[in-house]
Each structure stands twice: as structure tokens, then as C-alpha cells.
Amino acid sequence: MAVLKQYKGVANYFKGKYDVAAKLYYEAISILEYTKEKKKLALVYNELAKLYRKTRDLDRSLQNYNKASLLFRSVNDRTGLAMILNESGVVFEYKEDYDEAIRRYTASLKIDEALKDSVGIAYALSNIAGVYSIQKKFDAAEKNLLQTLTIRKNLKDNFSLALSYSDLGAVYSAKGDYSKAIASLDSSNLIAAAMGYPELLTNNYNELSGIAQKQGNYETAFYYLQKKTALRDSIFSTEKTKQIEELNARYETVKKEQKIEQQHNRLQLQSFLFAGIAGLILFEGLLKYSPDLNPIEQFFAKLKHFLRKAAARTVEAVCVAIGEILQAFTPEECVNYFQNSGYSRT
Q1: Backbone dihedral region for residue 289 (phi beyond 0: left; psi -120 to 50: alpha; all else: beta)
Q2: Which domains does the chain have, with CATH numbers?
Q3: pLDDT tens for each residue of 65-76
Q4: 281-315 pLDDT tens trace
Q5: What's the CA gap between 237 and 234, in Å, rounded?
Q6: CB-based contacts of 232, cutoff 8 Å, min separation 6
Q7: What distance separates the 2 farthest-apart alpha carbons in the chain?
């Protein structure tokens, strides 16, 4: 249950629904503090810290990063600790404490290199490049970002690729290489639009508008400014900030008395999933196999598509993802699968 709330919180975060995301994170924290699952709790604290970082509540962001760091240390999770060093370094960038930011990114990079963690290495290099860019060391920033881009292409990590292309676009723009800047930002926008990530699109539109102004193309600049404004207004408002503050105050003052139904709900969900999938597999075996004549192929094609999109990496996460995906199938859709395969009602 807590993991499901965390994943839903992350989904709402990327949609710009920060108030909904915060509510889900606090609910997950309440459950995990009760069950004393330290690693899972640390991961939720990290997500909550990231949310407060996004809304520029930097002190509260650091408080949550520190909680996550202590938990990862207590279970000797070096990968988790490296992640927190990377994430919290961004807070010090916002505070303009670049020395501390670089110190944290470099410490993270050393851990990731020792662990041979390509994902972590890419994030550390990217974050160090960000500081170089602020310090106007654009050649060094470009070198780090191109390394990052190569790693993420090999990993086929589309979300991170979108970020890398966006960062490269900003560096090329600062260097005055506008053709490379536009190409990089367009690549980022293609991925961000496909993923439904309005926050990144807003940032890219702002950069593209600035490039157009520098080139004297004011019509294009105004076009991107309009797109940026429309997206920004849709994902954030003063009211949402107030709601996040109210949720934090409520969490800090109310006693954690919730009755946990985590085990019951997990067993119920798994029983449903296993029974449903077993039934589908049995049904598939009863049909004469042919991709064109087998309705189950259409079902599994959609299931596998959304499962890949969910990018679940643990057994529990896969179970949760399948549970959510199955809700997207309607009886009418299943009937259509049979009709598409040449079967009709008798």
C-alpha cells in the first residue's frame, strides 16, 4: 500500500500536481514509519524532499534529505546514499553554495564509480556540469553532458535523456551555438511530450523563446513564450503551495494512529492478479495458436506496452503496476479483441 502511494505520488509530481503528490507521500511515510521499513521510508523521504526542492522550500527539503541519508546509512545502502548526495547537492546550488554542491556531487560520483553504477555516474556528471554552466565553464559542462548523454543512450533511459538534451541545449545557447541548442531542445521536447512531463516542456519553451529573441526572430519568441505561459499556469498556483503547507502542518501535529491494512491489501491484490493471469494463460492454451487469430495477443501487447512504460524494477512494483494496468481494460475492449480475431457472438 505504501509503495503504491509513493508511485502514485511520483506520477502526480511529474504531472505538476504537487499538492496531490505531497498528500500521497505523507500517507506512505505514515505507513512505513509504522512498519519500520527503513529503505522504503528513505525513498519516500527522498521524493518528498525533491518536491519541496521544486517548490523552493529549501530548508524543509534538506530536512527530508537528511532523514533519507540517515536511513540509508543505517542499512549500509551505498547506492541510496550516493543518490541523496546527488539530490541534495541541487539544494545547495539553489542556495548558491556551489562549493558544497560540487563536494556532494563529487562524493556521489566516487561512490557510483566504485559500485559501477552507470545511472548514478550519469546523474553525478550531469549535476557537476550544471555547476560548471553556472560558473560559465561551458566547455567543461559540454564535455560532462556529452558523456552523460552516451551513458543514458546505452541505458535507454528516455526520461534522463530528455533532461540531458535540455541541459545541452542550455549550454549550447550560452555558447552562442544556436543551431545545436535548438536541435537539443527539440529532442528533449519530443521525449517530454511523449512522457507527459509539462515541467520540462515549460523550461525548454522558455529556452527556445530566449534563443529566438537573440536571433531577432520575435514572432517565434512570442510563440514559445505563449506555450510556456499556458503550461506554467496549468501546473502550478499559489493555492497549491498553500495546500502543501497545510498538509505538512497536519502531518507534524496529528498522531499516527492509522490501522495498517498493508498485508491484507497486498495479498488480496496478488491473489487477484495471479488468478486473472493464470486464467488468461489457460485460455490462451485452449485456443489454436496464431497471432492473427488469438485475441490474447492483443491483450498482452497492450499489457506489455504499459508495463514497459511503468519501468517497475522489483517484484512488488511489477505487481502494483499490473494491478493498475488491468483496471484500464474494459469489458467492451475485451469483446473487441475477440471480434478483431474473427470470433463472433453465437
Answers
A1: beta
A2: 2-227+237-253 (1.25.40.10), 262-340 (no CATH)
A3: 999 999 999 999
A4: 555 554 444 555 566 666 666 777 676 777 766 66
A5: 8
A6: 202
A7: 74
